[in-house]
Specification:
The protein has 314 residues and is α/β, with parallel strands linked by helices. It has seven helices and twelve strands. Strands 1-2-4-3-5-8-6-7 form an eight-stranded mixed sheet, sandwiched between helices. Helix 1 links the parallel strand 3 and strand 4.
């Protein structure tokens, strides 16, 4: 189901401001994605991409929810002002998380942050250059406690360049992604398009990126405590051994998270030593008894052999 509604705000500075909004709920449970466009009013390809994606979305294929606002800086869009709001001359994407006691842009940033970004599980903020920018498409995420999730989302979006922004080194501040990251919401800015043009190629880049991001979120939402890739060796009943896997003992664990810190993922009812397992040899000694347990369990559950009659000539 997709609901189309209008966002209105009670703050006096925002009186009369109306922002079109889509609310989509999938047939399956999943994460809540905040999808924004038009943080800068002249970035038309990103605005068009949000509108088109939500109009064409099949909620039967959606797991979770999407709250989408295609034009956040509506005054800038209507006045055709590059980068800044006509009310105060400020760049909205330098004002987050905003303030209730600030100027127009700061107040709008605060309401967008509180009502759209903070309640979500992930943020995609689409940009497209502005009136005077010609950009190579790229995605950006911020250094934070949730940066691994943000980076994975940025990579999944599918643009050639991915930029990591560190607060101590970044030349700018007050962005949607930095505010989201500080709140613990993995967030990505995706840039494609520019020069104040509505370009189909740039719109398509954004549409493909959103679809890629949703597939990524749907896949990772299905598991919470397992690695992306689990490498297991096959137990050989004839040899009574677990063959090696790429120079490591089979069934050693998974590849996921920090690669220099392997872990063992195993059923809780299988015995493990109380002390830390260090090295492949200790791991092999720890898991070798599992093979014996598996064989005994197999013998106990196997159906009894059927007696056969043999015809003997007389």
């Amino acid at each position: 189901m997709i609901e189309r509604r209008t966002l209105r705000f009670e703050h006096a500075l925002l009186a009369g401001l109306e922002l079109p909004c889509f609310e989509a709920a999938g047939d399956q449970d999943g994460p809540h994605l905040c999808l924004l466009g038009g943080i800068h009013g002249g970035e038309y390809s990103s605005i068009a991409a949000v509108v088109r994606f939500m109009n064409e979305l099949d909620t039967g294929e959606l797991a979770g929810r999407i709250t989408a606002v295609p034009i956040v800086s509506r005054p800038s869009f209507e006045a055709r002002t590059a980068f800044v709001m006509p009310q105060d001359g400020k760049n909205l994407n330098r004002c987050f998380p905003g303030s209730h006691d600030g100027t127009f842009s700061e107040v709008l940033a605060r309401h967008v942050f509180e009502e759209l970004i903070a309640p979500s599980d992930f943020l995609l903020d689409l940009h497209g250059g502005d009136m005077v920018e010609a950009l190579e498409p790229f995605s950006l995420y911020d250094e934070s406690a949730v940066e691994e999730q943000a980076r994975a989302l940025a990579v999944a979006f599918g643009l050639r360049y991915v930029v990591r922004s560190a607060p101590t080194e970044a030349p700018i501040s007050g962005t949607t992604t930095s505010a989201a990251a500080a709140r613990g919401v993995p967030a990505v800015i995706a840039e494609a398009g520019g020069c104040g043009l509505l370009e189909e190629d740039a719109v398509r880049v954004h549409l493909d990126g959103i679809a890629n991001a949703l597939r990524h979120l749907r896949r990772t939402d299905r598991f919470e405590h397992v690695p992306d890739i689990l490498c297991n060796g096959r137990f050989d009943p004839e040899l009574g051994d677990v063959p090696a896997f790429e120079e490591l003992v089979g069934s050693h664990g998974g590849l996921g998270g920090t690669q220099a810190m392997p872990f063992l993922l195993s059923p809780v009812d299988l015995p493990l030593p109380d002390t830390p397992i260090v090295g492949a040899e200790e791991l092999h000694r720890a898991i070798r008894p599992w093979a014996e347990l598996a064989m005994r369990a197999s013998d106990e559950t196997a159906p009894p052999e059927q007696e056969t009659e043999t015809a003997v000539p007389v």
